[in-house]
Structure formats: structure tokens, C-alpha cells
Amino acid sequence: MIDLQQCPVTMIKGVSALKQQELHAFGIFTVEDMLNYFPFRYEDYRLRQLSDVKDGEKITVTGRIMSEPITQRFGRKSKLSCRVMIESWLVTATWFNRPYLREQLTQGRDIVLTGKWDQRRLQLTVSSSEFPDKGNSRVDTLQPVYSVGGKITQTWMRKTITQTLQQFGEAIPEILPGELVRRYRLMPRKMAVRTMHQPQNTDEGKQARRRMVYEELFLFQLKLHAFRAITRERSDGVAHEVDNATVRQFVRSLPFELTEGQKQAVTAILSDMRSPYGMNRLLQGDVGSGKTVVAAVALYAAVKAGFQGALMVPTEILAEQHMRSLSRLFEPHGIQVMLLTGSLTGRKRRDVLAAMQEGVVDIVVGTQALIQEGVHFPRLSLVVTDEQHRFGVNQRSVLRRKGLNPDVLTMTATPIPRTLAITAFGDMEVSSIRERPAGRKPIKTYWVKHELLDRVLGFIRREVSAGRQAYVICPLIEESDKLDVQNAIDVHIQMQQALPDLAVGLLHGRMSATEKDEVMRLFSAGETHVLVSTTVIEVGVDVPNSTLMVVMDAERFGLSQLHQLRGRVGRGEHQSYCVLIADPKSEVGQERMRIMTETEDGFELSQRDLELRGPGDFFGTKQSGMPDFKVADMASDFSVLEQARDDAAALVGAELFWTSPEYASLREVLQREQLFQGEVVD
């Protein structure tokens, strides 16, 4: 059987060496790539009755030309019109900027028109037309629409994929085991690939998509589960020997009692740490749910077992905050904590690096400075990354390689919908903390328009006069010609003028680390009443006395980001508030504001955010490791995703999968992905 993955695209008739280079830009290198380059939508040329069509819909109809065409010119632009009898309707058909059609529009000639229907004017604005007497008609077909550009045109792509199917269609192999194809009554792969490109009707197209969605999600899950199975067989992790009594002693020393969710997470993490297999666990929890304390228990266990721990966070502000909070927890137990960030230079940096190298320091908190050259941990056995989606996969693995194949605990305060957890983090065990610590009051959230800003300023005054503090968040630092949004520098001036008797601070990402530290020190100490900031304070900043969060142009943010910002207040004993100032023009923007005022549950918000924005924008970064599916959609295909995960897990767990010829094609898929790094699976 011919291996389509080994066939270059130049084997397709009509694909020259020049076209080959142009196809590379679309990720098409082989015949297999070309066959799997599916259309993102279809042009519907199926005939319909005018009486069945709603105003403004796009339709394809047949008719007879009843009048001579009339041409009107507007500078370089032109408009061509004629009367066409469609069923019993005399309709005006209009073409823009196609004067060359005039000679073909002869009275009495039959014509097929595709365009937008204006029922009130009885007018059809034509996007494409053809004449049945010429042959090669697209009437009653669904034409694929591909993502194209440059010198690759839609017509060329359609023609070339048709040629590819003619040459290689019969060589398309079946990948899925027969048992799965039969169980779910899936279309055979050969037919499904052909139908994805050339569906005869909507139902056939749906069946082809169902097959390809399942295959795509199943293969993805198969890779994750195979990777986990192989990783677990390698008992080269660190087995932390620490008894429960030692851990309980530390937990009892905490100034608060752990919630049930925290206790469950600690139990699962310690169980992983005691095993000789490497831990790879995701700890997700809502804003203020106490993930840092859980990480502290894990770090304590690592140190008591005779090793070192590291906590990597995305910003220096967050690193310094974690450094202070961990030092308070660990100091009574004689555990040494140090800070390593990019702004640490000279002798201070050399001292920290020496302490790490000599094993004097037990726990290092830092930013990406932890993964730079010259940073060494002789006994690193536990790596904790906070807000892990902000680090690329490579950055996380570099830190892991600096230790003794350490256990890895990744944390996020952006609760991840189960859909994304199964896909992006399918190679991890997941622990979730859903409840808030005792005594935390719900944050009251309001959505107001910009014209009510004066009332919001009055609200800020009342909170400050009661001894509290407020944040005012802006999307941009400076003025932008592209976006008509408030910016931090302008808002800072505006707030100083509107609140002349209050101390108004300014914080943004372009400040130096020293400047940021001083701004946050003044705010934390209560010397600054109102802090105008960009989203640099989105994650982790903890000032319990701040009770009011005002977000300017809130429609510019996603739900998860708004929830993160809201989580900066409500961290003390006083009632807290969040005011969203927004004039959203779109329905999605308005819906986002409504949802924020209705729920404080981060898990529910994350699911709604996924539905509104899609997986590509959920994390706001391509480095998050999110898979780029060709056919499947994680929001709408969630049930298929869950089924595919269960099927893949069952198959990988069966001994036959690794030995039977029936599964040879699936094992080849895994080997092509270099999943086994040179190991032969037979």
C-alpha cells in the first residue's frame, strides 16, 4: 500500500515545484496533507423556491432573462441590471463591476443566479451566475471553500484537490480499529475524506464530519494516554519519604484551617510525591481559593524529605508576593526561602545562585530567571509553576530538566473548562478547589455605562472615606489611534483631577521593577488610596484592604480576565464591589457583562467564556499548548471528546493494543509523532 505521508505534493498532477513552495505556506507538504486540507465552509448552490426564502438570505435560483441589460457607471464602478422571470416572479437581477457580462445577457436565455434576495424590492444582488447551455454547472451542489491566499486561488485549490482524490483516493488507509467504526457506525475513512471535500448533500456532509471529528479527537487522546502510560512505566522520579505526622504538624501551624477542597488536593499531591513515578498534576482553583497554601504544603514535604523546591511565576510582583507569604509560613520551621528575578543583579544574584548550588537554600521563588543559564539546583525534586498557561511548554520543561526529574505541580487561577482540561492538559492529573476559604464574602458586581462615571467616582470616595482602597483598571497604557479606549496614563490624570484630596497611584508594565515595587509598597501600606493600573495586577496581587474594583472599557476583556481582575478585591473581611464600565456594541459584549453580574463561579464563567470566544482566545496565547484541530470544535464536540478519551484510555490500557497486528496503524501514528523517542513499540 502506498504511504501517502511519504508522497510529496509534486506527485499530484498539476502541482509544479513553484506551486509546491506556495503550498508549504499552508502546511501542505505531502499528498496526505493535501487530502486532509479540509474546507472551512461550503457554498450552497442547491436550487430553492423564492417563496421559501427569507429576506436577506443567499439563494440559488433558475430563471429566464426577460429584458435587455442596462449598464450604469459611477466613475470606475459599474452596475449591470436586467429583468429575470423566476417562477411567477419578475425579478431585477443586479451585477456590480462586471460589465463584460452584458453581451451574454440575451433576452430569452436561461440563467442560474446565486445572490442575496431583497424581498421588498424584488431584487437579487448576484454574486455568481452561469448559463445551463454552457455545461459544467455548479447547480445543486455544495462547493467547498478553502483557506487560500497568495497565488493559490480558490478555483486552483478545488481543481487540485479533485485531482488528488482521483489519483490517490483509493489509497486512503483506514486508521481506526474496526470495532470502533462498527460501534459508532462511522463512515469509512476513504469515503469520509472524499465527502468532506465533495458532499452530495447536507446529511452526507454531517456524517463525514462526524467521522473525522471522532478520528481527530481519538488520535489526540490516544497520544496523550500513550504518553502517560509510557511515562508511568519509567520509575525514575523522586520518591519523597515524608510521614503524615510531619505534614500534619505543618498544617496545624497554619493561621487558618484548610477547606475540604484544599485537603483533598493535598492528599492527592502527597500521594503522587511519595511514588517513584514523576508527578504531573494541574491544581486549578477559583480566585482566592487558597492554591498557594496547597503548594506550600507540597514544598514543605519536599524539603522535609531532604530536597529543594522551586516556584516559578510570570511576574516579579507576584514572585515577591509569594516570597513574602512563603517566608512567613516557613520561617518558624527553619526553612530557607530566596527570591530570584531578572532585576536581581550583581552580588545579590551571585549570592542567591551560590546558595542554590551549595544547597543552602531550600525553596527558590522566581520568574523566568529560574530557567536561565548558570542557574543550578543540586537537589531539586519539586517544581511548582503558577499561572502555568503564561509559560510556554518549552519554558516549563527547561525548569524540569534542572532537577532530578522532579515532580511537577502546575497551578492556575483561571478555572479551565473540562473540555480544555481534557485536551490541553490531558497528560496531567487534575485537582480542583471549588470553595472559598471561610469568611470570604461574595463580591457585588455592577455594569454601568460611561455616562455614570461621576456616580462611580462618588462610590470611590465613599469607600476611601470608610478607610478602604480602590483599583481602576484600563486596557492600554497610552493613547492608541487604533482603539478608542481609555488608557492608564490619561485615566490617572483624570482621577487626580476628579479626586484631588486622594492619593492616586499609577502602575503599568513599562515601569521598571523598582518603580513597580514602590507603587505596590505604597498601595499595600495604605498610603495610596486609588491605584490606576493596566492588567499587570490581574494575577496574584493581594491587598486585603482594597474593596472596590473599577474596570474601564470592560467589554475589551474576556470573562476569565474580568473574573481575575475582580478577584483582586474581596480578600479581606469587608464587603467588596466590582464596577464594570462598558458600552458594548455587540450582543456578545452585552452578554459578557450580564454574565459577570449574575455569577461569581469561576468554573461556570470559564465555560461561558469558552463558548463565547472559542478555545483560541481562551488563554490569549498560542504558547499554552492548545491543540489546533482541523475539524473538531472543543465547545460543540465536547461529548465526542469525552467518548474519544474513554475509548483511547481503554485501548492503551489493553495489552493487545501494544502487540496485535489489528492496532499496527495506530502504533505507527504514535511512532510518527516521535512519542517513544526512538523506542520500538511491537
Strand fraction equals 15-25%
**What is the fold-level CATH name, i.e. the topology of the domain at 244-433?**
Rossmann fold
Radius of gyration: 31 Å
CATH class of the domain at 244-433: Alpha Beta
CATH architecture of the domain at 244-433: 3-Layer(aba) Sandwich
CATH superfamily of the domain at 244-433: P-loop containing nucleotide triphosphate hydrolases
Strand order of the largest sheet: 11-12-10-13-14-9-15
Main structural class? alpha/beta
Number of strands: 21
Give a quick account of the main beta sheet: strands, pairing sense, barrel closure. Answer: 7 strands, parallel
Number of helices: 23
Q: Unreliable segments (pLDDT under 50, ≥5 consecutive)? A: 389-394, 616-625, 677-682
Give the end-to-end Cα distance, rounded to a whole number of Å.
Answer: 20 Å
Q: What integer is the average pLDDT? A: 85
Tell me, what's the shape?
A: globular
